[in-house]
Specification:
It holds the Pfam family PCRF. The chain is an alpha+beta fold. Helices cover 41% and strands 21% of the residues. The longest helix is centred in the N-terminal third of the chain and has 41 residues. 28% of the residues are buried.
């Protein structure tokens, strides 16, 4: 076995990657064996209860099997996270749409939603770039979410999110519709080589903005890198120096280009245009209605929640699971009717 080869540790990075894979496989095998044994034991108890006419034993075993069903469903979802970069940390960007303060406030709500979701899963969150709105909310934010399978879970969130509510900024209390887009792409490790030269990009520096007080550098330390061939642009202002922000922006750009390559491979494998998951204002994936009724509906899978407050507080796993299942079971689900 490679894990037992002493020479493996001559390359610590490769060794750590292999050991993570080994641990993941060990955990999966143990879980399957445990579930199989639990099912076998409880089926045996039911047979014994039937032979002895003991209904209490039968009911207890049936309850245990129903409990196992939930565990099995959770394990099935974990098997969906088997993509090339699913186990990686992830970048998540939120951009407000047209509509000024309304959309900028909506973007800030989405930022909080994804932060709360990450915290619920035990992930760590860092803000790499933030642009405040003129009056309220944010124009854009880039989050770095660190945790096992962070990208695998979050990747189906890319798209346009729509909010319908009575505006707190409208003195006439009218209903408003706001849009914001989300873009998710994986952090890549050093073993994946993405070649980009200085001549392929445009590098701009600007003054950092957003919350931070004395920690915001007053020099032009923030960095934006634009890949000329694709138009992909990334920005970072989290570091205390232009050098740090430039290094992080290069990492982000390579990750975006890598994600583009993953999309191309997926499209080729599925041989269908619908698998390309392009992002645009016409590609709404989810609607959040707060008035006149309470409903969150995913327009790809039809999955719904009648508790928007819980969803906006980070309860997103059910929506992510539905999207992952649809993606694996023959590509994207058929779009469902939109809601007002």
């Amino acid at each position: 076995m490679r894990a037992e080869d002493p020479a493996l540790w001559n390359d610590p990075q490769e060794a750590q990657k292999l050991m993570r894979e080994r641990q993941s496989l060990d955990d999966s095998i143990k879980a399957v064996r445990s579930l199989s044994q639990g099912l076998e034991d409880n089926v045996g108890l039911i047979e014994l209860g039937e032979e002895e006419g003991d209904s209490s034993v039968i009911e207890e075993a049936e309850a245990a099997i129903r409990s196992l069903k939930g565990e099995i469903a959770a394990r099935q979802i974990e098997t969906l996270l088997s993509g090339e970069a699913d186990a990686n940390d992830t970048y998540l960007e939120v951009h407000s749409g047209a509509g000024g303060t309304e959309s900028q406030d909506w973007a800030s709500i989405l930022m909080r939603m994804y932060t709360r979701w990450a915290e619920r899963r035990g992930f760590k969150v860092e803000i790499l770039e933030l642009h405040d709105g003129e009056e309220a909310g944010i124009k854009s934010v880039t989050l770095l979410i660190k945790g096992h399978n962070a990208f695998g879970w979050a990747k189906t969130e890319s798209g346009v999110h729509r909010l319908v509510r009575i505006s707190p900024y409208d003195s006439n209390a009218r209903r408003h519709t706001s849009f914001a887009s989300v873009w998710v792409y994986p952090v890549i490790d050093d073993s994946i080589e993405i070649q980009v030269s200085e001549s392929d990009v445009r590098i701009d520096t600007y003054r950092s903005s957003g919350a931070g007080g004395q920690h915001v550098n007053t020099t032009d330390s923030a960095v934006r890198i634009t890949h000329l061939a694709t138009g992909i642009a990334v920005a970072c202002q989290a570091g205390r120096s232009q050098h740090q922000n430039r290094a992080k922006a290069w990492e982000m750009l390579r990750s975006r280009l890598y994600e583009e390559e993953l999309k191309k491979r997926e499209a080729a494998a599925n041989a269908t245009e619908s698998s390309k998951t392009e992002i645009g204002w016409g590609h709404q994936i989810r609607s959040y209605v707060l008035q006149p009724y309470q409903l969150v509906k995913d327009l790809r899978t039809g999955h719904e929640s009648t508790s928007p407050s819980d969803v906006l507080d980070g309860e997103l796993d059910d929506f992510m699971e539905a999207s992952l299942s649809a993606k694996i079971n023959g590509g994207a689900a058929e779009p469902v009717a939109d809601i007002d």
